[in-house]
Amino acid sequence: MNLDKLIRNNIKTMQPYSSARDEFKDFEQKMIFLDANESPFENGVNRYPDPQQKSVKRLLADQKGVHANQILLGNGSDEVLDLLFRVFCEPNRDNVITLPPTYGMYGVLANLNAVENREVLLSADDFQPQTEVILKTIDTNTKMIFLCSPNNPTGNSFSKESIVTLIQYFNGLVVLDEAYIDFSENESWLAKLKEYPNLVITQTFSKAYGLAGIRMGILYASAEIISVLNKIKPPYNLNNLSQQKALEVLTENKTTDDRITLIKAEKKVLLKQLLEVKFIQKTYPSEANYILIKVDDAHKRYNQLLEKGIVVRNRSNQPLCKNCLRISIGTPEENQLLINALKTL
Ligand SMILES: *Cc1c(COP(=O)(O)O)cnc(C)c1O
Fold this sequence. Notes:
By secondary structure, this protein is α/β, with parallel strands linked by helices. It has helices at 3-6, 9-13, 20-23, 54-64, 76-88, 105-112, 131-137, 160-169, 223-232, 240-250, 253-274, 298-307, 332-344; strands spanning 71-74, 95-98, 116-119, 142-148, 173-177, 199-204, 217-220, 280-283, 290-295, 313-314, 324-328. Strand 2, helix 6 and strand 3 form a beta-alpha-beta unit. Helix 4 runs parallel beside helix 10, helix 5 packs across helix 6 (105-112) and helix 11 runs parallel beside helix 13 (332-344). The mean pLDDT is 97. Pyridoxal-5'-phosphate binds at residues 76-78, 103, 148, 152, 177, 179, 204, 206-207, 212, 217. Pyridoxal-5'-phosphate is lined by residues 76-78, 103, 148, 152, 177, 179, 204, 206-207, 212, 217. Residues 43-342 form the Aminotransferase class I/classII large domain.
């Protein structure tokens, strides 16, 4: 892979915005800050946040075994994924490959950035990438392939072989979305970043960390890739309150781990109980914090659950997901209420 050839020309030549807090980077020293036209009156958030989120990155780097310069943080995964499109995909020329049924945001971001989205379905029998077909779909304008593992909404992880094949035979970026990796028995690919310069991994604070409300997404890649993404990210993309909350949760890992364990145990219980419901024809194995089920009539069952005050996700319109509902694992009480409701339908 030649990174220089992948980057859009306008990005290569542009001058990034230099914020006051970018020019004066020392956050630890006591200084009188008269450089950013802020209010001088302390209220906890009167100062602009650290544009490089150094404290959060330091903790993440330690815990995940990467360097801080291999991390980009964004306002949700949405933002870091959008930054990838803007750095690497020339509008109305380049294309990306996505593998439905999968997370809808990749396709939305492709459309938003005027980038062609080439869809190659997962295999119908086991929801794995069809690597041969994918490799044939690549052309000189293909910049990224999006892999979601564990995959949303199917819940399975992709095989190691197919991921390695795509990384090795593709000259663009393989973007591996690990939003649900903490619920999986499979290891994260973070340790492989050194080996594969065209691998980009995204994770999030929204799922296992329980912080969907602070909007914080994480992108891990080579220091070279991170430095181009940094060049175009909005300077103060993560506010102070979000950074503080992330720090708090990262220093309290036991709580997070306990909750992951509980969710996994509840998933097992739920999978068993779901099979006792007559109109559920199939439950799919899940490495995430949700379960995909196939029912007799997804539209009807979705509405019946709504009437009982339970909202699930109808995935019936996704390819290979006819009559499928996706159900997030809730608290033990919520899960019991779900089962009770299903059994009365
Ligand atoms: C939930 C989810 C995310 C997280 O998105 P955020 O913007 O970080 O909340 C990312 N990828 C997938 C596949 C998801 O399901």
